[in-house]
Inverse folding.
């Protein structure tokens, strides 16, 4: 297995992600958002917690837009309160055409530090050369006739009766030549997680 390089967390604003397009890659290359600032696979955002999602996530607003934070852990956002300013490092993702961020780090910060971050962003955006956005369709791969990623996600949902889907059964039913590697990528990308060894569940 090739060594997985940890991607740099790009400092940006929520609007960059909302206007960007999600590009899913094959193999071990990380999926990313194609934006005016370039390709972003990990983000560094700041925003105010404005509401808590009924499904367990929270929504932050940085003045340019709002985005949902989702997590595998049910207690990830318990100590966050509406009105608090947070810094979030994580991976931007799409589920059912909704853009969200899967946090790796969440840190409460002082509002004075938030003013400094705003100045940082303005300076970076002035100095950063904008790249032309890719005009690729959301989560579609032209050269590949079969979307094995989607097939695996569908089989996990179908086989999950509440206790997760058996990984061996998912591999067998998917018919993908490299199903195990695709499942590992989905876990790494935050779309699937193991509730226990050998049992898979899709992040809803």
């Amino acid at each position: 297995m090739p060594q997985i390089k940890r991607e740099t967390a790009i400092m940006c604003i929520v609007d960059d992600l909302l206007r960007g397009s999600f590009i899913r890659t094959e193999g071990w290359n990380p999926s990313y958002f194609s934006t005016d600032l370039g390709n972003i696979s990990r983000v560094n955002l700041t925003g105010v917690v404005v509401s808590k999602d009924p499904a367990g996530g929270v929504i932050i607003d940085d003045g340019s837009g709002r985005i949902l934070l989702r997590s595998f852990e049910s207690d990830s956002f318990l100590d966050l309160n509406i009105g608090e300013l947070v810094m979030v490092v994580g991976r931007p993702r799409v589920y059912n055409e909704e853009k969200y961020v899967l946090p790796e780090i969440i840190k409460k910060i002082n509002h004075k530090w938030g003013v400094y971050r705003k100045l940082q962003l303005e300076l970076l955006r002035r100095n950063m050369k904008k790249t032309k956005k890719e005009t690729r369709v959301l989560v579609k791969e032209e050269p590949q006739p079969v979307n094995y990623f989607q097939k695996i996600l569908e089989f996990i949902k179908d086989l999950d009766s509440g206790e997760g889907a058996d990984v061996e059964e998912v591999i067998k039913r998917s018919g993908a030549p490299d199903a195990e590697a695709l499942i590992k990528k989905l876990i790494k990308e935050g779309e699937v997680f193991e509730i226990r060894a050998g049992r898979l569940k899709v992040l809803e």
